[in-house]
Design a protein that fits this description.
Blueprint (H helix, E strand, L loop, with lengths): L1 E5 L7 E4 L10 E10 L1 H8 L12 E2 L4 E8 L11 E4 L9 H4 L18 E2 L2 E2 L6 E4 L5 E3 L6 H4 L7 H9 L9 E5 L3 H13 L3 E5 L3 H9 L4 E3 L5 H8 L6 E6 L4 H10 E9 L19 E4 L5 H12 L7 E5 L3 H9 L6 E5 L7
Helix pairs in contact: 4-5, 7-8
Bound molecules: nicotinamide-adenine-dinucleotide and zinc ion (ZN) (2 copies).
One zinc ion binds next to helix 2.
């Protein structure tokens, strides 16, 4: 089968022929219907040096996947062949305290989890291929009625990550609150929708691309603006009584965006860093409004994915996707790199279940 492989750090991915994997006991082979192209894959190709992450290439890219159950490994009885499923991306040991709580992103047994913090497409072979080997049935969520595989794939990261972040700050997102979304790309366009679906806060978006700003407003943002010298003052002025932003979701994470975030915070607000552009923010007692929480966030868990899929099945969330064939997967990343994607770039290796 064809697979888009990352063979070493600081290299472009390559489309190669690899054997179709065979599921062992407890495993499931999924015929991939869609795999989202995440900006993290560009960071993987271009920025990471050996030793930064606890796992390394070679592996097949694609950590945002959905498809159809193709072959059941010995002992798997919970799923049926042909059933549409979304893949929970982080594959931990399944038994440590965090894994038992569903937080496989934060598995603490690297001796038992081959790619701590990773999964298919992040250290192990992912979904930019015709088939994906999923090591345990617990990483698969059957799709609710009314949700297509191609629409489900981007939800497993681009919606799940903002959903997890918003849930952590939900107590600060009352009707008088303001949320700021910085970066309205794959994650941000779903972040705006998650906020609209789960709370009554007003939503402001910042993006350098005019198309992304228009997209944010079309998806329900109350206001969208370009980054610039007066942006922080304009954002603050647009908050309730000018008191500042309660929750910032920074989907970029550069020095510039973190500085903007710090300038707009309300006292007791949450500044959540989602983007991994590598920026830093000085944190000190008087450097930020009183009781500002600065936090990172990473992906989400199975139960949250079930909730995200439910929101989508009910029409409250929808990933806007630009579709590419597997042969053209490199163009998806090229377009993403150049800011030419509206919503998410999604690679479709198989149009339907072919058994
Ligand atoms: P994307 O390229 O689809 O979207 C990024 C958006 O940010 C684009 O619309 C771009 O125009 C905008 N942008 C860039 N610089 C900006 C600036 N200075 N000010 C305002 N807007 C700016 O990327 P994505 O796939 O949505 O990923 C976003 C980030 O989140 C990446 O760094 C990615 O690696 C990271 N990520 C983190 C997690 C996590 O769990 N923490 C999960 C997935 C992705
Ligand atoms: Zn991702
Ligand atoms: Zn674990």
């Amino acid at each position: 089968m064809k697979a888009l492989r990352l063979n070493s750090w600081k290299s472009e991915a390559v489309l190669e022929d690899v054997p179709v994997p065979e599921p062992g006991p407890g495993q499931v082979l999924v015929q991939v219907g869609a795999a989202g192209a995440c900006h993290s894959d560009l960071h993987l190709m271009h920025e990471f040096a050996p030793g930064v992450l606890p796992w390394s290439p070679p592996f097949t890219l694609g950590h945002e996947n959905a498809g159809w159950v193709h072959t059941l490994g010995e002992g798997v009885t919970e799923l049926e062949v042909g059933q549409p499923v979304a893949v929970v991306g982080a594959w931990g040991c399944g038994h440590c305290e965090h894994c038992l709580a569903g937080l496989e992103t934060y598995c603490e047994r690297p001796d038992r989890a081959p790619v701590p913090g990773g999964g298919g497409g992040l250290g192990l072979d992912g979904g930019m291929a015709e088939f994906l080997l999923v090591p345990s049935v617990r990483h698969l969520v059957p799709l609710p009625d009314g949700l297509e595989v191609v629409d489900a794939a981007p939800l497993t990261d681009a919606a799940l990550t903002p959903y997890h972040a918003v849930r952590r700050s939900l107590g600060k997102l009352g009707p008088g609150a303001t949320a700021l979304v910085i970066g309205v790309g794959g994650l941000g366009h779903l972040g705006v929708q998650v906020l609209k679906a789960v709370c009554a806060a007003r939503v402001i978006a910042i993006d350098g691309r005019e198309e992304a700003r228009e997209h944010a407003v079309a998806l329900g943002a109350d206001l969208a603006m370009a980054p610039g010298a007066d942006t922080a003052a304009q954002v603050r002025a647009a908050t309730f009584e000018g008191r500042g932003v309660d929750v910032v979701l920074d989907f970029v994470g550069s020095d510039e965006t973190l500085a903007t975030a710090a300038q707009v915070m309300r006292q007791m607000g949450d500044l959540t860093i989602v983007g991994i552009a590598g920026g830093t923010l000085p944190v000190s007692f008087f450097g930020l409004p009183y009781e500002t929480s600065v936090q990172t966030t990473y992906w989400g868990n199975r139960q949250e994915l079930v909730e995200v899929l439910e929101l989508a099945a009910r029409g409250l969330l929808r990933a806007e996707s630009t579709i590419y064939t597997l042969d053209d997967a490199l163009s998806a990343y090229r377009d993403l790199e150049h800011g030419n994607v509206r919503g998410r770039a999604v690679v479709v290796p198989n149009d339907s279940f072919s058994g």
